[in-house]
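R.M. (postdoc): so does anyone remember the format we settled on? I'll just put the structure tokens first.
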């Protein structure tokens, strides 16, 4: 890259005002989805400065970045091409790096360029693992789609910052709220997710195999705490405040895959299979991939926790709808009108001490209304299962 091109690229990186700033929650959420979908414990949205890397969004990665000279995302920026490293210890270029030999012990990397709306390659959308791995065309396509979402969210954040600077009251209000949520997330969520990342490394350490029965409950409770913080941050947003969206062509099959991947651990623990069934397409809808995946995840998670061992949860995608059906506890008719109210928990949830704070369906409903869509929940009654449907208008 020419010196002039690099100067313009660095100006673009700094225009987002994210270096050394709290991470936007939406980018953290996007990395969580990327890690879940591609089956890796670590994922990042990395911005590449003149001599360093900064994580504008991350999951499972300790720290906030590192030197550009030993940054995998830096290599993506330099080449302007996707990079897949199946085993870093077999690659002379990488096997001596500190992040490979020490924490977080990176063995696998897959990343694609993060290109902003002006065409500058400002960083990378990446997934990482402490075990060797592989990434095929489908995985790289999903990463590219998520990189596009990340770039769109970055552009929206910058636009709101600029509007707030010139005095737009609504933009100032949204910016203040996003700053607050980012700060709270940084103070509450970041330490727990960092602990989770280290726990992943401990679980994979064969020398600690005798202690796994102690580590795994800590993992589960850490995941529960992260989800609760996420629910509270998303569910207590003031009712009158707009929900910022990035509308783009979004594949509902990818949304279903992201939701299923996010709930994989909980489903396995409860021995509840989750399957996807695809009906007639096309499956592309105008929507925000991150938000729609959040909504679908809430529906799948509810279906899993209200299902008995061995009962299957089915995600059906057809046209502009995504439906989650279970054969679990069901919902009494008198409770159905209230299930999308904030903090509402039905009798079964209270009596059986089902985990949760009663925000999942409320968050999903708000996301659908922001898309001008509809969330419907129906049940044949107690013990007869529940069907929750998201409909996104085309």
């Amino acid at each position: 890259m020419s010196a002039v091109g690099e100067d313009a690229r660095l100006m673009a990186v700094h225009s987002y005002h994210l270096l050394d700033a709290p991470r936007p929650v939406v980018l953290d959420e996007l990395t969580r989805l990327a890690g879940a979908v591609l089956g890796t414990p670590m994922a990042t949205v990395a911005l590449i400065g003149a001599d360093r890397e900064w994580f504008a969004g991350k999951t499972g990665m300790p720290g906030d970045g590192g030197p550009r000279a030993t940054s995998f995302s830096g290599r993506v920026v330099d080449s302007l091409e996707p990079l897949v490293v199946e085993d870093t210890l077999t690659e002379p270029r990488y096997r001596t790096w500190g992040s490979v030999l020490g924490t977080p012990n990176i063995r696998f990397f897959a990343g694609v360029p993060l290109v902003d709306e002006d065409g500058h390659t400002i960083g990378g959308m990446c997934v990482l693992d402490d075990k060797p791995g592989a990434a095929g065309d489908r995985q790289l396509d999903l990463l590219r789609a998520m990189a596009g979402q990340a770039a769109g969210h970055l552009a929206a954040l910058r636009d709101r910052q600029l509007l707030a600077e010139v005095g737009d009251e609504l933009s100032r209000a949204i910016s203040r709220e996003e700053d607050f949520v980012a700060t709270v997330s940084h103070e509450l969520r970041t330490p727990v997710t960092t602990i989770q990342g280290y726990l992943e490394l401990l679980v994979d350490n064969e020398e600690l195999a005798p202690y796994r029965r102690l580590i795994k409950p800590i993992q589960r409770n850490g995941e529960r705490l992260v989800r609760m913080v996420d629910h509270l941050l998303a569910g207590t947003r003031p009712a009158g405040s707009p929900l910022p969206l990035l509308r783009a062509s979004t594949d509902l099959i990818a949304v279903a895959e992201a939701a299923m991947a996010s709930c994989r651990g909980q489903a396995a623990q409860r021995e509840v299979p989750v399957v996807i069934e695809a009906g007639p397409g096309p499956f592309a809808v105008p929507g925000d991939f991150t938000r729609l995946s959040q909504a679908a995840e809430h529906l799948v998670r509810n279906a899993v926790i209200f299902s008995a061992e061995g009962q299957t949860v089915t995600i059906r995608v057809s046209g502009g709808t995504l439906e989650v059906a279970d054969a679990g506890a069901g919902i009494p008719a008198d409770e159905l009108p209230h299930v999308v109210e904030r903090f509402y928990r039905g009798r079964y949830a209270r009596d059986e001490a089902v985990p949760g704070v009663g925000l999942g369906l409320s968050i999903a409903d708000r996301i659908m209304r922001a898309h001008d869509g509809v969330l419907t929940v129906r049940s044949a009654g107690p013990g007869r299962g529940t069907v929750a449907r998201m409909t996104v208008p085309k």
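R.M.: ...and that's the designed sequence above, right after the tokens. Also worth knowing: The radius of gyration is 21 Å. The longest helix spans residues 169-203.
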